[in-house]
């Protein structure tokens, strides 16, 4: 059965209906976490870790067996998690293991590698969600940048008070890692194709600021984050600091650790310096 075409009016109701049905069937398995906040020079970072019950559950699943290395959960995606189509080339799919509610993946219908350049159609598909509904869009450009799947997928989370947002670092002053901010004032969010073009141009400008290629295959590892006001591009040199993995959400003020004991390590180094360690220090 073909995935229904999504419109600005049907997207959120489809997410809600798909979420409820997937929870009932067990296809959607939210990850329950606890969190604390670390304040660095007035900037608040949320640090999450698995709750005790969740950690035991995860260990049981890991012990139950492993999927083969070449398993691709997006080809095809689970119908129970598929929300609908975003244009001809992309599907909107719920993250099977969300930490944040209504976490959406925007995947290519056909296989494309995560390290290939983001094109106008990729960014236009994200604009179909971000334009009418706000929130935060982000992309982990390759394994070093925190990507967990090889199949190209952008991500979106709705705006929720206390959750990751791009404004966390926007007002932080001088950041200790190489990055580029681009204002998105000229993007026409009411027209996804034009928005895709505008976002592609903004990404091109950010790459130029950093001396990065914008159309290499493979692209060098990077994290991309955007809301309706601004775009942030951060080149990456490693996935981990010590044994703490960092993806794009780290640059929106949200870090994840496996064990509560790792929080003290983050406090010692400071969240901003941790980000500099996985990026390129200035």
From TrEMBL:
Residue intervals of the Ap4A phosphorylase 1/2 N-terminal domain: 4-159
Coiled coil: none
Pfam families according to UniProt: Ap4A_phos_N, ATP_transf
ATP adenylyltransferase C-terminal domain span: 174-281
GO molecular function, one term: ATP binding
BP term (GO), one: nucleotide metabolic process
Residue numbers annotated as active site: 153
Protein name: Phosphorylase
Source organism phylogeny: Bacteria, Pseudomonadati, Pseudomonadota, Betaproteobacteria, Rhodocyclales
């Amino acid at each position: 059965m073909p995935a229904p075409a999504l419109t600005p009016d049907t997207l959120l109701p489809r997410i809600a209906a798909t979420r409820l049905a997937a929870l009932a069937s067990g296809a959607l398995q939210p990850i329950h976490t606890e969190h604390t906040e670390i304040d660095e020079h007035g900037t608040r970072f949320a640090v999450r870790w698995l709750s005790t019950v969740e950690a035991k559950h995860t260990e049981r699943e890991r012990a139950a067996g492993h999927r083969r290395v070449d398993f691709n959960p997006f080809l095809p995606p689970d119908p129970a998690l598929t929300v609908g189509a975003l244009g001809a080339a992309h599907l909107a799919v719920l993250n099977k293991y969300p930490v944040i509610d209504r976490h959406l993946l925007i995947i290519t219908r056909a296989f494309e590698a995560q390290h290939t350049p983001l094109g106008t159609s990729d960014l236009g598909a994200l604009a179909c969600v971000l334009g009418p509904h706000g929130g935060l869009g982000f992309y982990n450009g390759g394994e070093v940048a925190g990507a967990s799947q090889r199949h190209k997928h952008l991500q979106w989370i709705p705006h929720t008070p206390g959750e990751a947002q791009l404004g966390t670092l926007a007002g932080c002053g001088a950041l200790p890692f190489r990055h580029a901010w681009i204002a998105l004032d000229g993007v026409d969010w009411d027209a996804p194709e034009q928005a895709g073009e505008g976002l592609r141009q903004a990404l091109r400008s950010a790459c130029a600021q950093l001396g990065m290629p914008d159309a290499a295959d493979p692209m060098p590892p990077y994290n991309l984050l955007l809301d309706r006001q601004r775009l942030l591009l951060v080149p990456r040199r490693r996935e981990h600091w010590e044994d703490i993995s960092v993806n794009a959400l780290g640059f929106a003020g949200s870090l994840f650790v496996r064990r509560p004991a790792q929080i003290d390590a983050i406090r010692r180094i400071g969240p901003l310096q941790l980000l500099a360690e996985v990026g390129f220090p200035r």
